Description:
Jelly Rolls; 2% helix
Amino acid sequence: MDPAGKAGYELVFAEDFTGGVLDDRRWVAHYLPQWTTPDRSAARFDLRPGWLRLRIDADQPAWLPDGGPLRVSNLQTGSFSGPLGSARGQHRHRPDLTVVSPQPTRRLFTPSGGLVEASLRASADPTCMLAVWLVGFEGDAPDQSGEICVAELYGDRIGATGSAVRLGIKAHHDPRLREDMTDVQLDLDATGWHTYAAAWDSRQTRFYVDHELVRTVPQGLDYPLQLMIDLFEFPAGDTRDPSAYPKTGDVGPVRGYRQHPDLSS
């Protein structure tokens, strides 16, 4: 595999954020909307020429009404849920979650193998995390819920002299996988633009930063995954100083590739 030259891959998803509005043929601008209400799941963002700024604003409500102060602005490439009150839906990462806002099935970009990369510019705010994930779509089976964590950039772990990039595999409810996450220390400042990527098949996943291989995990996923890019805020308490907002994280070009059919066997 050669993510720098994309040898053996063909482009199937390309987002440059050059339009005046977010393309709803590519993105659902909500974070796991089935588990909460639309006002709480909705992303806040600004489109700039060639990039997008995710925001957490001072007046933004918590993602869950009774689930703590977590706030999220997220873009994802699909949606799915069961009926109102059911426990069926994507990324059920807490056992108490039930469907509050039933979602249509939208498979905008749900690869089961290939290569995905995103350019990110994170904030050094210690309450924030900017992340890119590939999460099981779960439309066919609830145990197809594993995750490729392409990059998690925590504000308190990045800086001018080096940054930690958290990446790896999360099993969630997939019994075929095991948790394998680690912090990779890199000589880069994640508050500047850098490209984070993962290339995977059913056997292994390779992780890249700025086109350099930084880790290989001997696990892979072979079922549909949706892409999620999000800015999280983990407030220390309920008191919020409006002058500290907005919290931001920036997203540049996003690409998705599939392995060329002649090389996939």
